[in-house]
Amino acid sequence: MAQRILKLVQSEELRRSKSDKLIAHYIERNLAEIPFETAKSIASRLELSPMTVGRYLRRMGFDGLEQLKHELRRGSSNPAWQVKGPVDRLREDIREGKLLAGLIQEQINNLGMVYELTTSPEWQQAIDALIGASEVYVAAYQNVRGIAQYFASQLSYTRSRVQFVDGLNGTYSELLDGSVEGRVLFLHDVRRFAAKAKPLAMEARRAGVKVILYTDEYCPWAAEVADICLVVPGSHGPLWDGAATTIAVMDLMLSNIIVVLGDEVSERVGMLTRLQDVFGDFEA
C-alpha cells in the first residue's frame, strides 16, 4: 500500500505546481505519520489551505484524507514508539541543540492548547461528572496506564469511591454490573489505540455509565463512544510520544476538583493522613 502511495506522489502529474510539490514532499517524508494527521494539520504545517490539500488528495484518487489513511492503515503498523527520520541527522541535531529545543517548543505549544481545553465546555462537564459521580472508574492501557493509575490514586484523595480497573477479570463486571447508578468511566486512550478501549466505552454507555474519554487528535472514534471528549494534541515530533501534556492535563483536573470541593477535600485528606499514621506507611 505504502509503495503505491509513494509512486503516486513521486509522479510528474502530482508535482506540477508549488503546492503540489510541498504536499508531495510532505507525504513522501512523513508517510508513517499520515494515518494520524488531519487535512487541517497538514495544511497548517505547509501554510496551505485545507481545500488545497483536499483537491490534491482527490487528484491522487482518494475521496479525502480518511480514505488515504484507511489504505495506509491496512498496509502498515504505526507504533507510538518510533524514531522518525534519519538517525544520523537526529544525532547531529542533538549535538547542535536543535532537537531538544524543538521538543521543548512542541511541549510549550501543546501546553498552550491545554489552556484552551480548560476553558472549554467539555472541561467543565468532565469536572462536574467526576465530582458528582456515585463511583469513578479509571481505565487505560499500554504506555498511558501508569499515568492513569497516578490520576486515579490522586483523585482518591479528593473523593471516595475511585477505582482503577485493569480488566484482568475479563469482564469489567465491577463497572458494568449495573448495581449502582451514577457511575462514571474516565477512559484514557491515545495512539496506538488499544483494542479494548472502544468496546469498553460502548459497553459502559450501554450499562448506563457516563464515559469521559481523554484522547488525542488522531482518535477516529472518540465522538462515537464518549459522552464527554477531552482531546489534546498528538505527537508530531521526530521521537516517540511523551507524557508531559497528559500529566499536565491530569494535574490541572485534580487542582480544579480540589478548588471546587474545598473543605471536603481537606477533611478527606485529614482522615487519610490519620489512617496512614495508624498503619505506618510514611516516616514522621
TrEMBL record:
<dbReference type="GO" id="GO:0003700">
    <property type="term" value="F:DNA-binding transcription factor activity"/>
</dbReference>
<protein>
    <submittedName>
        <fullName>MurR/RpiR family transcriptional regulator</fullName>
    </submittedName>
</protein>
<dbReference type="InterPro" id="IPR009057">
    <property type="entry name" value="Homeodomain-like_sf"/>
</dbReference>
<dbReference type="GO" id="GO:1901135">
    <property type="term" value="P:carbohydrate derivative metabolic process"/>
</dbReference>
<dbReference type="InterPro" id="IPR036388">
    <property type="entry name" value="WH-like_DNA-bd_sf"/>
</dbReference>
<dbReference type="InterPro" id="IPR000281">
    <property type="entry name" value="HTH_RpiR"/>
</dbReference>
<dbReference type="GO" id="GO:0097367">
    <property type="term" value="F:carbohydrate derivative binding"/>
</dbReference>
<dbReference type="InterPro" id="IPR047640">
    <property type="entry name" value="RpiR-like"/>
</dbReference>
<feature type="domain" description="HTH rpiR-type">
    <location>
        <begin position="3"/>
        <end position="79"/>
    </location>
</feature>
<dbReference type="InterPro" id="IPR046348">
    <property type="entry name" value="SIS_dom_sf"/>
</dbReference>
<dbReference type="GO" id="GO:0003677">
    <property type="term" value="F:DNA binding"/>
</dbReference>
